[in-house]
Amino acid sequence: MRVKEIMGWVRSIAFAVAFALVLGIFVFQPYKVDGHSMDPTLQDQQRIYVSKLSHTFSYLPNYGDIVVIDSRVQRERSFMDDLTSHPLVSLLTGTQEDHSMYVKRVIGKPGDVLEFKDQKVYRNGTALDEPYIKEAMQFVADGKLTVPENHIFVMGDNRNHSTDSREIGFIPVDHIMGTMIENPFTS
């Protein structure tokens, strides 16, 4: 009788772990903001929740969406990357928190022409209205950038203190881990 009861508990726990993994890899996952690049919108160490449906089904987020990206744009991503970045797997394996995940805002999509002048970002010749940025951007670039197919361009809201597409380059669609959703627990 005891063995049957223990096996029931083991099956229940195994099902719960598998369900948590599937949810975290394909549906939604919590992330922690690390640093001040998204000030004033998001604070250092703030927890956010990310819908992973855009990653699961490979569709582009909207302009202005806050996304979590894998900043290692020079390498291919695999399913193992998705699995090992899950917090439950990190907890079970004792691996360190992954600092290659950045929280940024979508500025450009494939085919967009971007310019950086007059302390503003111009997309397709029109200056963006960005009430969310911390202060006027000091960055200036000669020429124009065209976002390639299957990539996006992202920037932090704290433009003068953000490592983003200006440094790491265009973000491949498969490196977009998900789109931030409103915190369901604070509404």
Automatic annotation (TrEMBL):
It is found in: Cell membrane; Membrane. The active site is at 37, 104. Its main location: membrane. One of its GO terms (cellular component) is plasma membrane. CDD domains: S26_SPase_I. One of its GO terms (molecular function) is signal peptidase activity. The chain crosses the membrane at residues 6-28. One of its GO terms (biological process) is signal peptide processing. Residues 7-180 form the Peptidase S26 domain. InterPro entries: LexA/Signal_pep-like_sf, Pept_S26A_signal_pept_1, Pept_S26A_signal_pept_1_CS, Pept_S26A_signal_pept_1_Lys-AS, Pept_S26A_signal_pept_1_Ser-AS, Peptidase_S26. NCBIfam families: sigpep_I_bact (TIGR02227). This is Signal peptidase I. It comes from Brevibacillus reuszeri.
